[in-house]
Amino acid sequence: MSNYISATKNFFFLMAVVFGLIAPHLAIAADSKIEKDSRAALNSLYAGSPGAKALGAKARGILAFPNVVKAGLVVGGQGGDGVLLVNDKVVDHYNTAAVSVGLQAGAQSFGYVLFFMSDKVFNDFRNSKNFEIGVGPNIVIIDAGAAKDLNTETVKADVYAMIFDQKGLMAGIGLQGSKITKLNR
Question: What is the pLDDT of residues 29-59, one digit of tens each?
């Protein structure tokens, strides 16, 4: 029996060592995939929407969530990971999450990008622990298809949110109440 206990302890010790060595590499690989997916989503958005490209050129920072998954049956939730880009460089990783209650059923995925247009709001965002859409700065939510006529001469909001690449069956998309949290990586 003591041989069994000793072997079990050794096995768990070995697994802890292996996991300790592999976990940082898995996190780096996940970060790399999110960064790649975020850049690809942003480039696709720019290719289909000159208005989005114009916002991106003037933005102080761009927060891109390439794949947010939303599902619900009366009670719903949504979530996904993304990156913050400043001068086309990834500076931080973030998570978006929301919970909703109401008449809803279905599942879908979509991407969204936040374009921070003012220094004050962008700095406030970077210095906050949690940022909630719908609380605080003036945010204009635009469907990517409707942004074709948007130009930087008419830009007046602090933050623009652009929703794109919607897939699945669920009535409506809302970002109101979404919490954005900086990931410690």
Answer: 457 899 999 999 999 999 988 889 999 999 9
- Tell me the two tokens of residue 105: 């059923």
Q: Is the pLDDT of residue 11 over 90?
A: no
For residue 25, what are the contacts with CB-CB under 8 A and spacing of at least 6?
none
* Pair 168, 108: CB distance under 8 Å: yes
pLDDT value, residue 26? 41
Contacts of residue 50, defined as CB under 8 A and 6 or more positions apart, other chains included, come to 148
* 174 burial via Cβ count (<10 Å: 0-12, 13-18, 19+): middle
Between the CA of residue 87 and those of 45, 58, 59, 63, what are the distances in Å? 17, 10, 9, 12
- What type of residue is 15? M
User: What is the spatial distance between Cα 16 and Cα 165, in angstroms, rounded to a whole number?
Assistant: 40
Q: How far apart are CA 52 and CA 43, in angstroms?
A: 10
Q: What is the pLDDT of residues 49-96, one digit of tens each?
A: 888 999 999 999 999 999 999 998 888 899 999 999 999 999 999 999
Count Cα neighbours of 76 within 13 Å in the Cβ-side half-sphere. Answer: 24
| Paired strand residues for 101 | 75
